[in-house]
Amino acid sequence: MISLVVLTIALLARYAFHLVGKWRWIYVVTAVMALYLNVFVLVVQSFLKIPALKAMAPTQTEPPFLVVQVIVLVLFIGLGIFAVKRFRSEPMGAAQTA
Question: For residue 74, which phi and psi values (nearest 5 degrees)?
Fold first, then answer.
C-alpha cells in the first residue's frame, strides 16, 4: 500500500505537473523510493522462502538480515542522490526540434 501511495505521487509529478520545477526531483525521489520498497519486500521474502537464507536468519532479527537491509538502504540512498543530481530531462510539452 505504501508503494502505491508513493507511485501515485510519482504519477502526479510526471503526468499532472509535467516535471516542472520541484516536481522533477519529487518524481525522481518517489520513483526511487517505490523501487526501494519493492526491493525491501524482495529481501524479506527471500529470507522467508530460500532455505539457506532462512537458516541464517529464521526470525529476521539476526545480523545477516539486518546487514542486508542496511546495505540495500545505503545503496538506494546513494542511487537517489545520484538520480536527483543527474536527472535533466526536458519537461513534457517543451518545444522539440525535429
Answer: -65, -40
Burial of 10 (0-12, 13-18, 19+ CB in 10 A): buried
Instruction: Dump pLDDT digits (tens) for 7-37.
Output: 999 999 999 999 898 999 999 999 999 999 9
Indicate the burial class of 9 (C-beta count within 10 angstroms; 0-12, 13-18, 19 or more): middle
Say how far apart CA 26 and CA 24 lie, in whole Å.
Answer: 5
**Cell numbers 541464517: residue:** 56
Q: Which three cell numbers stand for residue 56?
A: 541464517
Grid cell locating 52: 539457506
pTM greater than 0.90: no
Q: Name the burial class of residue 25, with classes exposed (0-12), middle (13-18) and buried (19+) by CB atoms within 10 angstroms of its CB.
A: middle
Q: Could you give the 3-state DSSP secondary structure of residue 3?
A: helix
